[in-house]
Amino acid sequence: MGATVRLPGALRDATGGETKLAAAGATLGELIADIDRRHPGFAERVLDETGALRSYVNVYIGEVDARTQGGTAAPVPDGVEVMVIPAMAGGAGAAAPRPRAG
Amino acid sequence: MTRQLVLPQALRDEIVAHARAEAPKECCGLIAGREGRATRVIRCTNASPTPEVRYTIAELRRVVEIEDAGEELVAIYHSHPRSPAYPSPTDRREAHWPDTAYVLVSLRYDAPVPGGKGPFGPELHGYRISDRDAVWEVALEP
User: Fold this and answer.
1) Could you tell me if A62 lies within 8 Å of chain B, comparing CB atoms?
2) Does B76 touch chain A (CB under 8 A)?
3) CATH number of the CATH domain containing A15
4) Closest residue on chain B to A20 (Cα)
5) Region A68-85 average pLDDT
6) Model confidence over B84-133: pLDDT tens digits?
7) B113 touches chain A (CB under 8 A)
8) CATH level 3 topology of B1-77
9) What's the pTM?
10) What's the gap in Å between the CA of A30 and the closest CA on chain B?
11) Which of A5, A52, A86, B59 is the most buried (most CB within 10 A)?
């Protein structure tokens, strides 16, 4: 069982610059462990101290958001493309003050 | 680390038009390009439940499409309808793309300011934001 994992942009430094790599596993957790064996530290970048996906890391298994399928327990169909991508978010935050007159 | 991004006027105009169209909500999107030169702006959907003060880009998969087209993601943009074009604490806390520029557009003086001399127009600035909360200015070249 295996998948092609895409790591656009921000996570590629965790894989020595590789943005597309083959990984083995029947679940998302197994895929991450497989990549971590070759690129130690990768798992820590995407998983928190409890072993769950970090809140800002998004994973799509094919078209499916892995969080809706149990996170790291999500099944990975053979040959599927998996995308691991950090969130793009932010904003002005708490109600911004209006510009002062004058 | 790249400290400049070539962002042609036509693309700046597109970003400002997007910001104005979404105000008072924040707009957001991606800027594709090659070797530090922006070539196109991709408007995205702001999926935040509080879009007046937050943004969350919904179409993350577009990044893979950019790379498959032989381009790079050179910047992520969003608007601050009422506050300065500078990374807010929220922007810094939620920045996870340290090698990609963040382009911010502010509309705070884009409309007449009561009692003031404005409008002065939109402000547009580029930054890099590290995952350690540091901010560097990225010069936006024409």
Assistant:
1) no
2) yes
3) 3.10.20.30
4) B64
5) 96
6) 999 999 999 999 999 899 999 999 999 877 777 778 899 999 999 997 88
7) yes
8) Cytidine Deaminase; domain 2 (3.40.140)
9) 0.91
10) 23
11) A5
